[in-house]
Design brief:
CATH class of the largest domain: Alpha Beta
Helix content: 25-40%
CATH topology of the largest domain: Rossmann fold
Distance between the termini: 60 Å
Order of helices and strands: HHHEHHEHHEHEHEHE
Number of domains: 2
Strand order of the largest sheet: 1-6-5-2
Structural class: alpha/beta
Length: 256
């Protein structure tokens, strides 16, 4: 009986992976040399070793990693200069050149085959760091409607859904809406970023988040302006608290 169940499981797994293997042969889509499976996100083990996990010590508020030895919780100087509306932010990986390249393909080239890798990286790193807290709901950072129609999906929503399943919590899309199209913040100063993100989000279902402990999910924490503004509107709408999880963490200062 056990043998039959294992056989059936293998057949179903192969059938599920079949369409993916048809369009993406089992070769690493980064180096185009080594073999890689769908469950690896078609990124081979050698290339995955180039993905750097965020290691302690890091700021207990914004999650910015630091070099050296610090054996107690601390808040970096950057966080003292910015009003934060989230309790803490944690990220799985450093947003190095490799990680940003992979994320760019996922966001702009429809590389959905990376999703199993992203889910594993995010869950393993954050679970192993024991940052699992008590939350009521999971929310993705929303995309502007025009951008989501152009792209076809919201990458943060996938991450939020996958984490919600593992945490056994509801993932609620549409509770917070992005009401303004914001231009790229790459070349903007701290003050300009704050202005750029001001009033970019709106809570459309106040009752759902009122007095709730929220886990807010995004793909990249670059400077924190986006998640901080999203957390702000949630707190103003009556949320009890907001914690942030992201897949990758830039090494820029909070809000800069």
């Amino acid at each position: 009986m056990v043998f039959l169940l294992r056989t059936l499981k293998n057949i179903l797994k192969t059938a599920a992976e079949g369409p993916v293997r048809l369009f993406y042969p089992e070769v690493c889509q980064v180096c185009l040399d080594s073999t890689a499976t769908p469950l690896q996100g078609f990124v081979c083990e050698a290339c995955q070793r180039g993905i750097m996990s965020v290691q302690a010590p890091f700021c207990h508020r914004c999650g910015l990693p630091f070099e050296g030895e610090i054996h107690q919780a601390f808040q970096c100087p950057n966080c003292h200069d910015v009003r934060l509306f989230f309790v803490s932010s944690r990220s799985a990986c450093v947003a190095n050149t490799l990680m940003l390249s992979i994320l760019h393909r996922y966001k702009y080239a429809n590389a959905r085959w990376l999703e199993p890798l992203f889910e594993r990286l995010m869950w393993d790193a954050l679970f192993n760091d024991r940052v699992i807290d008590t939350w009521d709901i999971v929310l993705p950072v929303p995309l502007y409607s025009v951008r989501q129609r152009e792209r076809g999906y919201n990458q943060s929503a996938f991450l939020a859904q996958s984490m919600a399943v593992r945490l056994k919590l509801p993932c609620l899309e549409g509770v917070v809406k992005r009401v303004a199209h914001t231009p790229s913040q790459t070349m903007l100063s701290r003050k300009e970023r704050a202005v750029n993100m001001a009033k970019a989000f709106e809570v459309v279902d106040v009752e759902t988040i009122s007095n709730r402990r929220i886990l807010l999910i995004d793909d990249v924490f670059t400077t924190g302006a986006t998640v901080n503004e999203c957390a702000r509107v949630c707190m103003c709408a009556g949320a009890q608290s907001v914690h942030v999880w992201t897949l990758a963490r830039g090494l820029g200062v909070m809000g800069a």
